[in-house]
Design a protein that fits this description.
- There is one protein chain.
- By secondary structure, the protein is of the alpha/beta class.
- The protein has a domain of 283 residues: NAD(P)-binding Rossmann-like Domain (Rossmann fold, 3-Layer(aba) Sandwich), CATH 3.40.50.720.
- It has 13 helices and 13 strands.
- It has an eight-stranded mixed β-sheet, with helices on both faces.
- Helix 4 packs across helix 10, helix 5 crosses helix 7 and helix 9 runs parallel beside helix 11.
- The longest helix has 21 residues.
- It binds uridine-5'-diphosphate-glucose.
- Uridine-5'-diphosphate-glucose binds next to helix 9 and strand 9.
């Protein structure tokens, strides 16, 4: 996947206003001035390192060609329900195509000045947009003036997490027919969250992880590329690094996953890199460290739950008797694993920025972390402070595939996206999750809703 290419300036840099007119932003990143020089033939089967990547053969944005491909792809059965499951009026095809051609929605023009190269709204397919990070990102995209279609099979996602302003297409990203239905919306970008996310489970059913995270991404890509989608952001993971060679981890550090989950995402990244190299698709992979926290409307809710913070809060809420600590003999300050917790709202903000930044660059890989290593014991201590509950602990065996310590350098995200994690205080993060957890319990929301 792409590193920051030398000689290319990002669309957005810290301190720059995010709503500059297209021409200004395009010329800043060098795209408006001249067509890129020719691309050299690829000499080997492995993608060249990004720093050595040859420039492209032709301008990537041949809008008339892309428009013709989009017209060809748009069609079939409109399937359009809102988050509450009600049928929405079907947009007729000429309007969809017209929207795609202009890249924006006339009604929304007034709120799009800061969006998408200045002045045009993106129409974004958010796969897995009924899940934890996906739904918060869908809401953030809408808040930023973009339009969102969520594609989710609701096997692990929650219908009520889907923002009211988003369309919802229910189905599997691996099914081309379903993706085509979603594309009836006339979309021009995709943020891909759908997949399997548990490192521990991936060591028990690795084939499921490769099928969902690698195979599913490829099948989705085939349809999106055929439909002329321009920008693609992959939800990737810190698990691609495995045991780090140094801390904090930088994007150019070795990627040697210690679990099948990380390996399945790394393969997806590699495939994306190739596709982006050979097709007119701009791609970003965002490698999250440990997503955590909640917004007032959306939080972490898996079935079964395996993640540390929600499990600890279930103990505080009286739903569990104790928390098992997986390994107390790691070479860390207190013997428990250290992770870099990053608030879900900060992650969502990074996705919006990454989509917008792809207007000025072709490929991008960024770590997203909160910037501090926190041990399992420290998380439990924070939960005790926040909830006032003693939270009993049981020491358990190490969980297979768990690296001892993962802490991100998010310098590149700062530099390229102008991104900064705003939620840094661990107690405040845990408190946001606790507030949401109690709220959902009082609302009677269960894991299966
Ligand atoms: O009951 C539990 C659950 C977890 N842990 C530990 O807590 C830490 C965090 O575990 P968890 O919350 O399950 O997250 P990770 O396994 O670190 O994986 C998360 O963080 C990754 C990036 O680091 C993401 O890619 C994954 O999607 C996400 O599940 C690990 O050391 C676990 O061993 C326990 O000790 N007891």
């Amino acid at each position: 996947m792409a590193r920051c290419r030398p000689g290319r300036r990002p669309t957005e840099r810290p301190g720059e206003p995010r709503g500059e007119p297209r021409a200004v932003r395009a010329s800043r990143c060098g795209r408006a001035a001249a067509a890129p020089p020719p691309r050299r033939a690829r000499p080997s089967t492995a993608p060249p390192p990004f720093a050595a990547r040859a420039p492209r053969l032709a301008p990537r944005h041949d809008r008339s060609t892309r428009f013709r491909r989009l017209v060809a792809a748009v069609g079939g059965k409109p399937h359009d329900v809102n988050a509450r499951g009600r049928a929405r009026p079907t947009r007729d095809r000429p309007a969809s195509v017209e929207f795609a051609r202009r890249g924006g929605n006339r009604e929304n023009r007034h709120r799009t000045e800061r969006c998408f190269d200045g002045g045009v709204t993106m129409r974004v397919l958010v796969t897995g947009g009924a899940g934890y990070i996906g739904s918060v990102t869908a809401a953030a995209l809408i808040d930023a003036g973009h339009e969102v279609t969520v594609l989710d099979d609701l096997s692990r996602g929650h219908r009520e997490f889907v923002p009211d302003a988003a369309s919802l297409v229910i189905g599997d990203v691996s099914d081309p027919g379903t993706v085509h239905r979603a594309l009836d919306e006339g979309l021009n970008a995709c943020v891909h969250f759908a997949g399997r996310i548990e490192a521990g489970e991936s060591m028990r059913v690795p084939e499921t992880y490769f099928a969902a995270n690698t195979g599913g991404t490829l099948r989705l890509l085939e349809v999106l590329v055929g439909a002329g989608i321009e920008r693609f952001v992959l939800s990737s993971t810190a698990a691609v690094y495995g045991d780090p060679v140094r801390l904090p981890i930088r994007e150019d550090d070795p990627t040697e996953p210690t679990n099948a989950y990380g390996a399945s995402k790394l393969l997806a990244e590699r495939a994306l890199e190739w596709v982006s190299e050979l097709r007119p698709l701009r791609v970003a992979a965002l490698r999250y460290f440990n997503a955590c926290g909640a917004t007032p409307d959306r939080g972490e809710l898996h079935d079964p739950e395996t993640h540390l913070i929600p499990l600890v809060l279930e103990v505080a809420a009286g739903q569990r008797d104790e928390i098992a600590v997986f390994g107390t003999d790691y070479p860390t300050r207190d013997g428990t694993c250290v992770r870099d917790y990053v608030h879900v709202a900060d992650l969502a903000d990074a996705h919006v920025r990454a989509l917008e930044a792809l207007g000025g660059r072709e490929q991008l890989v960024c770590n997203l972390g909160g910037g501090a290593g926190v041990s399992v014991h420290e998380v439990i201590e924070a939960a005790r402070r926040v909830t006032g509950h003693p939270i009993p602990v049981r020491t358990a065996e190490r969980r297979p595939g768990d690296p001892a310590e993962l802490v991100a350098s998010s310098d590149r995200a700062r530099e390229v996206l102008g991104w900064e994690p705003h939620h840094r205080d661990l107690d405040a993060i845990v408190a946001s999750a606790w507030d949401w957890h109690r709220h959902r319990l009082s609302d009677g929301m269960t894991d299966s809703t």
